[in-house]
Amino acid sequence: MIDDDQSLIRSSLVYLKQRVKRIKHTRCVFGPSTLRKCVVAVVIFSIILIIIYSRQTRTPYLAKFIKSNTRPEPNIRCGVEHGLRILQNHDHKTDARLKSDPKVLVFVETIFSKLGKDIAELLVHTRIKYKVEVTGKSLPVLTNLDKGRYGVIIFENYNKYLQMDNWNRELLDKYCREYSVGIIGFIPAEDETYVGSQLKGFPLFIHTNLKLKDATLNAASEILRLTRAGETAWGDLPGNDWTIFKANHSTYEPLEWAHRNDFFPINESGVKTPLPTVIQDHGLFDNIQRIIFGSGLKFWLHRLLFLDSLSYLSHGHLSLSLERSILVDVDDIFVGDIGTRLKPDDVEALINTQKRLSASVPGFKFNLGFSGKYFHHGNSEEDKGDDLILENVEKFMWFSHMWNHQQPHLYDNLSLLMDDMVLNKNFAKQHRIPIDSGYSISPHHSGVYPVHDLLYIAWKKVWKIRVTSTEEYPHLRPARLRRGFIHRNIMVLPRQTCGLFTHTMFIDKYPGGREKLDESIQGGELFQTIVYNPINIFMTHMSNYGNDRLGLYTFESVIKFVQCWTNIRLTSAPPLQLAENYFKLYPRESDPIWGNPCDDVRHQKIWSKNKSCDSLPKFLVIGPQKTGTTALSTFLSLHPSIASNVPSPTTFEEIQFFNAQNYLRGLDWYMSFFPSDTNSLTRYFFEKSATYFDGELVPRRVHALLPYAKLITILISPAKRAYSWYQHTKAHRDNVANNFSFHQVITASDAATKDLRDLRNRCLNPGKYAQHLERWMSYFPQASIHIIDGDQLKSNPIEVMNELQKFLKITPFLNYTEHLRFDKRKGFFCQVKEGSTKCLGRNKGRQYPPMEERSLKYLQRYYLSHNTALVKLFNKNGIRLIPKWLKEDLSDQNDTDS
Questions:
Q1: Which of 160, 168, 726, 897 has its CA 20 to 30 A from that of 655?
Q2: Where does the pLDDT of residue 728 fall: very low under 50, low under 70, confident under 90, or very high at 90 and above?
Q3: Residue pair 96/123 in contact by the 8 Å Cβ criterion
Q4: Is residue 80 predicted with pLDDT exceeding 80?
Q5: Binding positions for 3'-phosphoadenylyl sulfate
Q6: Cis before residue 478, ω within 30 degrees of 0?
Q7: Helix, strand, coil content of the chain in percent (nearest 5)
Q8: What is d(CA 232, CA 113) in angstroms, rounded to the nearest whole number?
Q9: Is 459:487 a contact under the CB 8 Å cutoff?
Q10: Cα–Cα distance between 641 and 730 in angstroms, integer?
C-alpha cells in the first residue's frame, strides 16, 4: 500500500508540473480561465493528499466518500515483549516470622473520598481483605492477643500520617516495627505549590503540582513482580497535580520516574532529568518500610505498582498469582442481519489471528456459540462464510445457544424448552460440531441469573451441561463484584465484557472512537480486567469479527499490552477446566447469594413472567427457638391482611430457607411457599423460622433477597431458653438429652462426643443475644428490627400485638382483645374461635421441673458478659426499655458475686 501511495504522489506531482507549464505558455497568465484551472489543480492535489493521509493514519475522515481499508490494526509496540522478564523475587516471601493477618488497614480522610474509594474497589476486585478507618483522634485496635490484625497500613493522604499526634504516631510505628508491617502512602493534591519542601521528620523533599509525561520504571527494584519494567509509558500523565521526590538518605530508592511536561528541567549536559514519582523507603532511617506515591490511582501503571507494593510489604502474603486464564466466547454464530455477518475473508482472518494468539497464549482457541436455525440467513457471500466456518469446525471450540435464540425464561413448559435444545443438538450432529463441551450460554443470560430452574433442568437432560457463565451475578455493574456460584450442580462462572457488543461493528461508531477503545486496551478497563481476574471469560459477538473486525483487533492488542507491561502468564483452556480451577481458588463462592430480581430492572426483564414481587415476604420472625415464636406466628395470622407461608412438608410450619440446605434449592423453591393466587385481601406475607436468629450466614442472605424486610425477634432469659431447649429435645426422645442431665450438657467440654457438643451448643449459643443482634444490625438498620420481651408476650400479648402492628404499619388495625383470651387450664393466652379458646398443641407451653440451682448459677455466670453486652447494645441503639428478665439476670449475678 505504501508503494501505491508513493506512486500516486509522483503522478500527482507530474500532473501539477504539466499544468504549471501550460499556465506559463498562455498569453494571459492571470486570466480568469487560467486561475480556475490552477485552483482546480490545487484542490485535486489536496484531495489526493487527504486520501493518502487517511489511509496512512487510518482515520475515519471522508470515510463516507472514500472506499479504503480503514480497519484498525494492532499497533502495540513492545521492545521487551519477547525479552527477559525481570523477577527479582518471584513471590516476595522472606524469612520474617510474621505475626499479622493478611489484611489491609486503609486510613481515609472521609468515607466519601475519591482515592479511598478507588483503593477499596481495587481491593474488592482482587479479593484482598481490608478494613477502612476514617483518620481521627484515636487508632483502631491493631492487635488481637499476640497477633497483629493487619499486614499493611495504607494512608490515602500521607500527610495525615506525618501529622499524627505523638502518642498515636509512636503507637503505630511501634506496631509496624514489631510486626514487620509496611506503610503505603499517597501525597494528595494541594492548592498551594511546594518546592523543595521537607516531609516532616524525614530526609525527603517534595515538589508538588507538576504536569508530567513519559513514565518509566526502575528495572532493578525488588518491588516489581506483577509489573514488568523495560518500557516507557509515553505521553502526558493524567492530572496536573503530581508530586516528585528528592531524597537526602540512602534509605530511599525511586520506583518510577517521569519528565516534566515542559522545557524546564534540563541539566548542564542538555538532557532532561528524570524525576522520581514513586519512591521506596527501605527502612534504613527508622526501621519501617514504606512506599510513597506522588499521585493517586488515576494512572493505570500506579494500580500495578500498588498491587506489587502490597505484595512486597506483606512479605508475599498479599500477592496475586501471576497465572491468568482467558477464554473468548463468540456468541451468535449464524445469528445476524444481512450485512453484519462473516464473509469468507473474515473467517480466514479469524483463523489466522487465532493461530498468532495461540503462539503467545498456550491453548488459545475462539469458543463459538451457535444457533442453528439462522444458518444460511445472509447474502451469498455471508452464506459462504457460514460454510467456511463449518469446513474448519475442528479448529475452534464450540458451545450451544438456543436453536431459535429465544430467551429461556419465556418458557414455562419444560418439554418445549427441551425441544428447542434438541433442534440445536441435531443441527450440531449434522454439521460435525462437537456436542460434549459441557458448556452453554443462554441468550441475554436469561434464566442463568435470576435462576429459571427449567433452564438448568433442560440443560442437564439435553446437553449434560456442567458449566455456564453470566455477567449478571450478582449484578451487571459494578463488574468488580461479579462472582461465580453453583446451582443444580452446574457451575456458573463470572463473564466479562470487553467493550464490544452486538452493535459494535465499526471503529468510527465506537462510543468515544478508537481513542476510547485504545484507552481500555492500553492500561484501562479491559487491561485491568485481565490483571485482576485469574480466570477471564469474555463475551463478544459474531458481528465483532466481520466488518471492522474489532474483536480481533481488541484481543490481539490487549494480549500484547499485558505481555509488554506485566509478568503475567496467559493461558487458555476449555470452560470445564476453567470452572474447576475457579472453584478450587474460591470454594466459598460455591454457595450462591440470591438477590432480589425486583430491585434490578435488568433482572426483572429476564425473570420468569409467572413470578411476582408482591409474593415475597414483607417481614420475618427470626427467633430464637423456644422464646414464643410459634405463638407470635399464630397471633399474626389472625390478622386479615397477614398471611404466613404455606407449611413445608419437611420442616412443618417453618421453611428454614436462609440457614439450611434448602437455600441451595433456589429462589423458585422459596417462592413456591408464597403463592401469588392467595386471598386478594392479603397484603403482607411473612415467614417464621426460629433458627434464623443465630445463623451465621442468615443476615447476609436475608438482606440480599429482602433488603427492606422488617425483622421480629423475641428475647427471654438466655438461661431459661437454654433449659427449655433441653427439655424440648428430651420430650422428642433425643438420645443425648435422655442420657445426660441438663447440667452435664451445658458443662460438657470440647473433648466430649460430637452429639453431646452439638446439644450443648444448641442450648448455649442462641442465648448470646448481643453477638447475634450485632450481626443482624450490620446488614439492617435498627429501625427495621423489632425486639419483643418474651415474658411480656406471654403475660400481655394484646399490648405486644398492638405495638407490633404499629411497627409493621399494618392496616387495618386489628383489635386483639376480641381475638385473644387467657386460658386458665393452659396458663397462657389463646385465640378465640367461635366463642371458645383454641390453644396450641400439647407440646407447646408444657410445664418442666424446676432447673437445678447449680445449673442456674452456672448459666448466670456464663451469660454475664453477653447480657452486659446486650445492655450496651440497647443503649447504643436508643432502646431504653430494658426487659425485666435482663435486669433480674444481671442483678442475681451481682448478688451472687457479692
A1: 726
A2: very high
A3: no
A4: no
A5: 724, 844-848
A6: yes
A7: 40, 20, 40
A8: 30
A9: no
A10: 37
Q: Is the dihedral of CA 59, 65, 67, 71 positive or negative?
A: positive
- Alpha-carbon span 484 to 492, nearest angstrom: 5
Q: Supply 6's cell numbers.
A: 508513493
**How far apart, in whole angstroms, are the C-alpha atoms of residue 790 and residue 556?**
67
Question: What are the backbone angles phi and psi of residue 243, rounded to the nearest 5°?
Answer: -115, 135
- State the pairing for strand pair 684-688/710-715: unpaired
Pairwise CA distance, residues 276 & 256, whole Å: 6
End-to-end CA distance of the chain: 99
| Arithmetic mean of pLDDT, 513-521 | 96
Of 837 and 436, the one with more pLDDT: 436
d(CA 407, CA 164): 59
Task: Tell which residue, 744, 407, 794, has the closest CA to residue 609.
Answer: 407
Cell matching residue 261: 511536561
In single-letter form, the type of residue at position 496 comes to Q
- In one-letter notation, the amino acid at residue 880 is R
Burial 610-636 (b: 16+ CB within 10 A, else e): ebeeebbbbbbbbbbbbbbbbbbbbbb
Q: Are 469 and 441 in contact (CB under 8 A)?
A: yes
Q: Which of 612, 610, 620, 636 minimizes the C-alpha distance to 706?
A: 620
What band does 839 get if pLDDT is binned at 50, 70 and 90? confident
Other CB atoms within 10 A of residue 335 CB:
24
Looking at the predicted structure, is the pLDDT value of residue 69 above 60? no
Annotated binding residues, written as ranges, equal 724, 844-848
Side chain identity at residue 703, one-letter code: H
Reference 586, options 703, 486, 489, 487; nearest CA is 486
CA distance 480 to 475: 10
Which amino acid makes up residue 227? Answer: T
Looking up cell 482546480, which residue turns up? 40
Residue 676 banded pLDDT, cuts 50, 70, 90:
confident
* Inter-axis angle of helices 550-565 and 344-360, nearest 10: 10
Q: How confident is the model at residue 41 (pLDDT cuts 50, 70, 90)?
A: low
Task: Check residue 838 and give its pLDDT.
Answer: 76
pLDDT at position 825 is 76
Question: Burial letters for 186-217: b for 16+ Cβ neighbours within 10 Å, e otherwise?
Answer: bbbeeeeeeeeeebeebebbbbbbbebebbbb
C-alpha cell, 724: 427449655
pLDDT at residue 62 is higher than 70: no
DSSP H helical ranges for 282-413: 300-313, 344-360, 380-391
Active site residue 343: no
pLDDT in tens, 152-191: 999 999 999 999 999 999 999 999 999 999 999 999 998 8
Q: Are 746 and 855 in contact (CB under 8 A)?
A: yes
832 pLDDT band, cuts 50/70/90, is confident
> 49 - beta bridge partners?
none
> Which DSSP string corresponds to 30-54?
T-HHHHHHHHHHHHHHHHHHHHHHH
- Among candidates 129, 121, 158, which has minimal Cα distance to 291? 158
> Burial level of 261, CB count in 10 A (0-12/13-18/19+)?
middle
Distance, in Å, from the CA atom of 47 to the CA atom of 371, rounded to the nearest integer, reads 46
pLDDT at residue 60, as a whole number: 39
Instruction: Identify which has the larger pLDDT, 413 or 262.
Output: 413
DSSP-derived pairing of the beta strands 232-236 and 212-217:
antiparallel
Residue keyed to cell 410450619: 653
Q: Are strands 204-210 and 242-247 parallel, antiparallel or unpaired?
A: antiparallel
Question: Considering the chain, what is the average pLDDT of its residues?
Answer: 90
CA distances from 412 to 39, 417, 453, 479, 677 (A): 72, 8, 10, 30, 17
List C-alpha distances in Å: 231 to 81, 564, 607, 617: 10, 8, 49, 58
Is residue 483 within 8 Å of 494, Cβ to Cβ? yes
| C-alpha gyration radius of the chain | 35
Which one is catalytic: 365, 373, 626, 710?
A: 626
